[in-house]
């Protein structure tokens, strides 16, 4: 509900009140592009956010719609330590603001996340499946 119904209904409610030009930012995840094991519903909702944003961007004139394909960000909900691959929320917000106006419908605002995702895309699927399953099992304890 939080990742699909809420942004859909919020967008529907707010669109009539937008003035030109406008901006809509929706948070997706690389889990929506490369769904990990044990997160099927989450990955599906993030894939929805990405598709919803791209479709909306194609429908709306004078409104920039960007799907923010996001990796791990340190927040109050994700309290693991800040690292190169888990940046703090303030730095992520600056990266997001820097891409506004870029002309893309879907983008990874943080370069290390984009590089990581590109490298993952080069891996054989069997290897990726095994590696992500092991990593998720370790993560979930």
Helix content: 40-55%
Reading the helices and strands in chain order gives HEHEEEHEHH
- E-strand count: 5
Weakly predicted, low-confidence segments: none
The largest sheet, given as strand count, sense and whether it forms a barrel, is:
3 strands, parallel
| CATH class placement | Alpha Beta
The chain-level mean pLDDT equals 95
| Helix/strand/pairing category | alpha/beta
Rounded Rg: 16 Å
Count of domain modules:
1
Please report the number of helical segments: 5
CATH architecture: 3-Layer(aba) Sandwich
Annotated CATH homologous superfamily? NAD(P)-binding Rossmann-like Domain
Keywords, separated by commas or semicolons:
49% helix, 141 residues, Rossmann fold, three-stranded parallel sheet, single chain, two-stranded parallel sheet, 5 helices, alpha/beta
Description:
This protein has 141 residues and is of the alpha/beta class. The protein has one domain: NAD(P)-binding Rossmann-like Domain (Rossmann fold). It is 49% helix and 16% strand. It has five helices and five strands, in the order αβαβββαβαα. It has helices spanning 5-14, 40-59, 89-99, 111-122, 125-140, and strands at 22-29, 63-70, 73-74, 87-88, 106-107. The strands form two sheets. It has a three-stranded parallel sheet, with helices on one face. Strand 1 (22-29), helix 2 and strand 2 (63-70) form a beta-alpha-beta unit. The chain is globular, with a radius of gyration of 16 Å. It starts with a helix and ends with a helix. The model has no long low-confidence stretch (mean pLDDT 95).
